[in-house]
Amino acid sequence: MKAMRLIAVGALLVCALALTAGVAVAKPPKGAVHGKFSKALALGDSGLINAVSASNVYCFWSEGHVIVHMSFRNHSIAHVTLHVEPKYTIKNGGTHGNGITNWQSVGIDGHAFRAVFMDAKSPDGVPKNSRIGACQPDLAMIEAG
Questions:
Q1: Full-model pTM
Q2: Pick from 19, 63, 84, 101: most CB atoms within 10 A?
Q3: What pLDDT, in 10s, does the model give residues 34-80?
Q4: Helices (H), 22-66
């Protein structure tokens, strides 16, 4: 009887660890600038737009490029493709990563979580590793499938 309880407790512990492993988020590196993901101007099905959320948004420099991190959750039953504009500003250096040529696609299965790191490239006209002023990625468009 005691052995059965130990097995049951062990099984519950394994299940709990497995469930929490699916929601792990990346810890921002030192110097990262926390940001906010916007869906205000997104194109596409409004129901799908509302069913997607983003958290743990931040931008940081890595090897001369700005990297934008976002953790997405798709609350719909459909697989969706997000077209994201990895927008950020450089303090006293303007906005970068914006415009249709910078859009990057992210696919997320229904009821799934996905953390992504987007290479927002090296900003034109400013020295590498200049201070990031704001991290403001946008959802530009969403598609089912």
A1: 0.82
A2: 84
A3: 999 999 999 999 999 999 999 999 999 999 999 999 999 999 999 99
A4: 46-51
Q: How far is CA 126 from CA 33, 76, 129, 141, in A?
A: 18, 40, 9, 29
The residue type found at 21 is A
Q: Which fold has domain 28-144?
A: Immunoglobulin-like (2.60.40)
Contact 81, 105 (CB under 8 A): yes
Contact 66, 29 (CB under 8 A): no
Tokens encoding 1: 């009887």
pLDDT in tens, 78-137: 999 999 999 999 999 999 999 999 999 999 999 999 999 999 999 999 999 999 999 999
